[in-house]
Specification:
There is one protein chain. The protein contains 7 helices and no strands. By secondary structure, the chain is an all-alpha fold. The chain folds into 2 domains: about 1-60, no CATH class; about 70-120, Arc Repressor Mutant, subunit A. The radius of gyration is 26 Å and the shape is elongated. GO terms for molecular function: DNA binding; sphingosine N-acyltransferase activity.
Length: about 120
């Protein structure tokens, strides 16, 4: 009733349109879909401009160079290969062990969110 008074004056009833909008809004919020939309809107229109205004870096970690064999080991077997596996990969790819260790370190860091992403999601 107070909504009707505010929108249309004393003695007016709330039109059915407003009730339908209210019902749709409640369904969105109850299903979580509305919260998801609100979260993304907050990140995009409030948190990210604030972060960029504070000069938070948007760049992420250095990308590992594409290598199908190492990627398959990384995704299917292990993200932290032991010395024995490193030696085998070194012989298979004709790379030195240090280069393979660097590739795995860069690939693990690639999965971490950037500083900008962490800042935005902490707001």
């Amino acid at each position: 009733m107070k909504l009707a008074i505010l929108l249309h004056g004393v003695g007016a009833f709330v039109p059915h349109d407003y009730l339908l909008y209210l019902l749709a809004y409640c369904l969105l919020v109850l299903t979580g879909f509305g919260a998801n939309i609100a979260h993304h809107a907050l990140l995009r229109f409030i948190a990210k401009p604030c972060a960029l205004g504070l000069k938070v870096q948007a760049n992420g970690p250095q990308k590992a160079q594409p290598n199908a064999i190492l990627e398959k080991v990384f995704t299917a077997i292990t993200k932290h290969p032991d010395e024995k596996r490193l030696e085998g990969l070194s012989k298979q790819l004709d790379w030195d062990v240090r280069s393979i260790q660097r590739w795995f370190r860069q690939r693990r860091n690639q999965e971490k969110p950037s500083t900008l992403t962490k800042f935005c999601e902490s707001m």
